[in-house]
Amino acid sequence: MRLLCRATLFLCVVLPLVACNIERPRRVDGQIELGSLPSPEFKGINKTLLENAREAEQASEYKRAAQLYRQLLDGEKENAPRLLLGYAENTRKAGIEDLGIGTYDVILGLEPENIDALEGKGLALMAKGEFEEAGDTFATVIKQDKTRWRTLNALAILFVTREQYEDAMAYYTEALVHSKNNVSVLNNVGLTYAIEGRAEDAIDTLLKAVELTPSNHAQREHIEMNLALVYATSGDLKAAKRIASRYLSGPRLNNNLGFYAHLADNDALAKSYLNMALSQNPRYYSRAWKNLESLERQENEAKAASSGKKGKRIKIN
């Protein structure tokens, strides 16, 4: 009751003060002149589409984001280069590199100095495995701006493909100068250490990347699965299984564990895991064991060709 009285008193005091500052709408022939009233704010269709596209990007829903940018391009011509860049970036991230490259070329035709488009084109070329052309593109980017961490990171990866690890680390280091604690760069540093056979350094670096990545971020799973892979190559199958179990279950988990066991040189255990995967879902994993046999055959051929080199190839992301 006391609270009600206070609230009533508060309203009695405040409302008259507010009312003094309100201008009553004028009347014309007994009707309120609607033009004098404030209009509600309605978002335009294009503004809503753009917001949805950016939200899809944040959620790593790249195909959906690309579709939304495509819709925007159909209806808005004034901001074409900006919208084209959004479309190109999302098609590239969705794995549709050819479409991305074509779109980047359209942007560069309109704006030859657009460094974002040039860098994006280089990343798309690298994703396609066209390393020489990608390297030339990144060289052009660096001439314009030496602080582009994505380009520095990409150049490091190109050096990794040539087994020039010292040069790769120099570029990773420079990328981290311009983007401190960048988890994408740290992820690649960790995988490069793994390729070199420096398992302890690889694990330490990937653990740091995991700690810096929010638990609800999509990239967290990606980095942790790479960490599981490195644990497996170092022979720590228990740690690899513990991490993989956070994200996988059933036949998918057993399929991965089979591959991890193979990386740990325990093919008997690998076969056991793969057999479990096959029995749980033979339709989806019918080629699992064949893939493993193919991998073994390739590695044996590689060992025969170069018996002095050790270590297994790991994809850099």
Topology:
Layout: H1 2-19, E1 27-28, E2 31-32, H2 45-58, H3 62-75, H4 80-93, H5 97-110, H6 115-127, H7 131-144, H8 149-161, H9 165-178, H10 183-196, H11 199-212, H12 218-233, H13 237-244, H14 250-263, H15 267-280, H16 288-305
Antiparallel strand pairs: 1-2
Helix pairs in contact: 2-3, 3-4, 4-5, 4-6, 5-6, 6-7, 6-8, 7-8, 8-9, 9-10, 10-11, 10-12, 11-12, 12-13, 12-14, 13-14, 14-15
Please explain how this structure is put together.
There is one protein chain. The chain is an all-alpha fold and 317 residues long. The protein has helices at residues 2-19, 45-58, 62-75, 80-93, 97-110, 115-127, 131-144, 149-161, 165-178, 183-196, 199-212, 218-233, 237-244, 250-263, 267-280, 288-305, and strands spanning 27-28, 31-32. The chain is globular. The termini are far apart.
